[in-house]
Amino acid sequence: ELYYFKSAKSNDGKLLIYTAMPLTATLRESLSTTEVTFWSILIVLLAASALTAYFITRNITNNIRILRDFANNANNNNVQFDESKFPHNELGDISRQIVKLYRDRTNALEKSQREHNVAIHAVEEKARIKRQMTNNINHELKTPVSSIRGYLETILANPNMDEATRTEFMQKSYAQCERLRVLLRDVAT
Question: Which residues are CB-contacts of 99 (< 8 A; sequence separation ≥ 6)?
Fold first, then answer.
């Protein structure tokens, strides 16, 4: 005949109690109910664990999806992104840091491009001013040189010119030479 054995300690731990009883149909049914309860609890715990794992995984997946959306926006040069979409956890903190780094990088590139454009404009403006100044100097120098040349050609072409006219042309040539000297001094300055 089969027996059911059970042992237990007393509350104070000084006594050890052994029990044995015949394994009857009623006792067997009672024990099998405990076994069903055990398996039921185990199944409920496994289901709860699976649901917990599902929600944790869904939360992480959601964070990764939001970060992926930001990466796609950044790839399309769309820096407008709502950082409040990121959760307030470690992954959200990392994601916000990535967004901040991307914005800082984008702002630095834009600033660099603006400075580059200003520098190019300054170089172009300097070249334009230099061309304009060269043209102005050229024009200003041609006027007295042309006047001097005209007076001298007239004197050379007319050897019988009266002395008063010749002196007047020589004085005008001298005046133009002085004007040329002043212009050259201004250019040097």
Answer: 70, 81, 83, 86
**Cα–Cα dist 24/12, whole Å:** 32
Residue type, 72: N
- CB neighbours of 7 closer than 8 A, spacing ≥ 6? 16, 17, 18, 19
CB atoms within 10 A of CB 74: 17
* Distance, CA of 53 to chain centre: 36
Task: Please give the single-letter amino acid code of residue 185.
Answer: R
pLDDT band at 89 (very low <50, low <70, confident <90, very high): confident
Q: What is the average pLDDT across 93-99?
A: 84
The pTM assigned to this predicted structure is: 0.47
Please provide residue 182's backbone torsions phi and psi, each rounded to the nearest 5 degrees. -65, -45
**Where do we find the tokens 């780094």?**
101
* Mean pLDDT on 43-56: 94
10 sits in the region (left: phi over 0; alpha: psi -120 to 50; else beta) called: beta
Q: And the tokens for 57?
A: 């995984």
